[in-house]
Specification:
Blueprint: H1 3-21, H2 24-28, E1 31-39, E2 46-49, H3 50-58, H4 63-66, E3 73-81, E4 84-93, E5 96-107, E6 110-122, H5 130-133
Length: about 130
């Protein structure tokens, strides 16, 4: 695995941990401040800046606290060059299984997510971690 793949994999782990644990401060280490989250689910564009995203994360109960099974996974990493990559990942929050396309850039020696385009599918019910529920 090249150094860039290892660095992007580490970025994705912080991304997963931030959303799973509801850790806004950790997410701020992952996203570039100019990042926007875009979706066209149901045919209309949703365009959220990072302040809206952080407010939403801070205002909900984290999946880890709810005892949800962590379903985070990297589906692919497409490295264009040492400064640009596209990561395709999945995360679950509540009854939604998100598929995210994360455009990553390397700025001043550090990888950041500069844009996110996502969609989701509804699961029948969230998967709960039996150990966390005890």
């Amino acid at each position: 695995m090249t150094k860039a793949y290892a660095e992007i994999t580490e970025l994705m782990q912080r991304y997963f941990d931030g959303f799973y644990n509801g850790d806004v401060e950790l997410l701020k280490t992952v996203f570039h401040p100019s990042c926007h989250l875009l979706s066209a689910r149901d045919g209309s564009l949703t365009d959220d800046d990072m302040e809206a995203v952080y407010k939403r994360v801070a205002g909900r109960t984290a999946p880890a606290v709810n005892g949800e099974t962590n379903r985070d996974r990297i589906l692919s990493i497409d490295l264009a060059n040492p400064e640009l990559a596209l990561a395709k990942v999945q995360i679950a929050i509540g009854q939604k299984l998100f598929t995210d396309y994360l455009n990553c850039i390397r700025i001043d020696g550090e990888w950041k997510i500069i844009s996110k385009v996502f969609t989701y599918d509804l699961m029948e019910q969230p998967a709960f971690n039996a150990q966390a529920a005890e």
